[in-house]
Amino acid sequence: MQQLLTLVLLANLAQSLSIPQASPTSPLAIARRSGRSKVAALDPRACKVPDYNPGPVSVSLPKFDADKAQVYRYRKQQAVNLGSWFVHESWMVPSIYACAGNDKIAEIDIAAGWGGVENAKKVLEKQWDTFITEDDFKYLAKIGINT
């Protein structure tokens, strides 16, 4: 749900800032016509929007247990950073920024590119749903990561 709210916020911000959508004069469009560009991804396949629909999401959270929370608060924690899963870093997953707009450095640039907000939403939802999987969490737990 938070991902959807973030995307809506980014879309509204992009519209309020009047950030232009992909146009025939965009660097990527010019690169495709001329065959030369400073754009990182010239391969048209890099900008293919996935046909992705995550379907309905149902979340049920248990009631807060203060005693259990205290146990987790003071236990020895072993952690890992799941970089670029929710906070996107262009150096970690450059494919997400391949068709981003503007400077290609922030999530607002993703929303401003990819041919529109709906396409950017598909790209981001696929990233959120597939970058880290349940098998990854099982592996992390197996090697002692508990936070």
What's the number of helices?
7
Question: What would you call the structural class?
Answer: mainly alpha
Largest sheet: none
Secondary-structure element order, N to C: HHHHHHH
Q: How many extended strands?
A: 0
Alpha-carbon Rg, integer: 19 Å
- The whole-number mean of residue pLDDT values reads 76
- Percent of residues in helices: 40-55%
Q: Ends: how far apart?
A: 21 Å
Task: Provide the low-confidence segments as ranges.
Answer: 16-23, 25-32, 34-42
Proportion of residues in β-strands: under 5%
Silhouette: elongated
Q: Any overview of this molecule?
A:
- The chain has 147 residues and is an all-alpha fold.
- It has seven helices and no strands.
- Helix 1 runs antiparallel to helix 6.
- The two termini are 21 Å apart.
- About 17% of the residues have low confidence.
Summarize the structure.
The protein is mainly α.
Observed structural traits:
mainly alpha; 147 residues
Present the secondary structure layout.
Layout: H1 2-16, H2 27-34, H3 66-74, H4 94-97, H5 107-112, H6 117-130, H7 134-142
